[in-house]
Amino acid sequence: MAAPREDAGHAAHCHSVDDFDAGLAQLKTQGVRFAGEPYETLGNRLVFFHDADGNLVHLIKRAKPMPRTGA
Q: Which domain holds residue 53?
């Protein structure tokens, strides 16, 4: 089940982690309120939440690293 998309069209900050469960647990212990339940899509695990400034943020564990583009 995907996170609510009331923020669709707005950029989200992304934090990629190697251990999704540990990252999720740490956020929970810090009292983070999530915008939805964690879910999986295309092998990636995600969960969305808002930071203290109201920015949409998501935690992600990618099945495969994103390809690097020119810099």
A: 13-61
Task: Give residue-wise pLDDT tens across range 5-26.
Answer: 555 555 668 899 999 999 999 9
pTM above 0.90, yes or no: no
Element (H, E) at 9: none
The DSSP string of 15-55 is EE-S-HHHHHHHHHHTTPPBSS--EEETTEEEEEEE-TT--
d(CA 9, CA 50) in angstroms, rounded, equals 15
Instruction: Between 28 and 5, name the one with better pLDDT.
Output: 28
Q: Is 54 exposed, middle or buried (0-12, 13-18, 19+ CB in 10 A)?
A: exposed
How many folded domains does the chain comprise? 1
Residue 18 lies in a domain: yes
Query: H or E segment at 14?
Result: strand 13-16
